[in-house]
Amino acid sequence: MSSIHDGHRKRFKGEFLARPDSFPDHKLLELLLFYANPRGDTNPVAHGLMDRFGSLAGVMDALPEELMKVPGVGEHAVVLLKAVKETGGRYLSSRSRMDEIVRGTGDIYEYLKDYFYGARNERIFLLCLDGKGKVLGTRKIGEGNVNAAEITTRGVVEAALSLNASQVVLAHNHPSGLALPSDEDKFTTQRLAKVLEAVNVELVDHVVFSDDDMVSLRASGFQF
């Protein structure tokens, strides 16, 4: 059984495939919602989301229970939006090339920034390098809540040894604050540097991300 919206949806999809970059945010949401609501008019739902959360990023970052307060948004729509956000983050991360050489703070930022894309909670990653600074891989060490995440010595050491790393960079984010290392961050850095040294792995740096900013403890003059 066809829907009165079928013709509109077909034209809409064709328009998107022809000029995806020209789609404004509300039309992109309208298109996405086709797949959560196969028959209904998703235009007012898309506008409702944009009005409530202010931007496409605001919609993608909103909590599921907040999203479902918008008329026309149910569980299918919430799952779709969250899946699109997660897929986008993983896509950006997977584009990082494994043959890159990390030579300094700028390279660290460029390589790791996508791992914290859209993160609402603290995340911890370990960037593993060989003796010449070639990227061997990145391991997720943990994830906590908006304010904290536990960095375990065992997790860091196991991740470094699993890739036979000679050097590592520890990275985590402050999703609700500034990219300024806390006293606990500094203590953790010194503790891990000693533990890694015992297994012949050098802690090259510990960096803290927040939005588009990153602070390097090494570049800030902190002694490991």
Structure description:
- The protein has 224 residues and is of the alpha+beta class.
- The chain is 43% helix and 16% strand.
- It has helices at residues 6-18, 25-33, 43-53, 56-61, 64-67, 75-94, 105-112, 153-162, 183-197, and strands at residues 123-129, 135-143, 167-173, 202-210, 213-216.
- Helix 2 (25-33) packs across helix 3 (43-53).
- The relative contact order is 0.09.
Briefly summarize what is shown.
The chain contains nine helices and five strands, in the order αααααααββαβαββ. It has 224 residues and is an alpha+beta fold.
Which structural traits does this protein have?
alpha+beta, 43% helix, 224 residues, 9 helices, five-stranded mixed sheet
Strand order of the largest sheet: 2-1-3-4-5
Radius of gyration in whole Å, from Cα? Answer: 21 Å
- Per DSSP E runs of 2 or more residues, the count of β-strands stands at 5
Give the helices and strands as they follow along the chain: HHHHHHHEEHEHEE
Please describe the biggest sheet, giving its number of strands, its sense, and whether it closes into a barrel. Answer: 5 strands, mixed
Distance between the termini: 68 Å
Instruction: Compute the average pLDDT.
Output: 89
Fraction in helix = 40-55%
Regarding quaternary structure, what we see is: single chain
Per the principal axes of the C-alpha atoms, what is the gross shape?
elongated
**Proportion of strand residues:** 15-25%
- Structural class based on helices, strands and sheet pairing: alpha+beta
Contiguous runs where pLDDT drops below 50 for at least 5 residues: none
Q: How many DSSP H or I helices?
A: 9
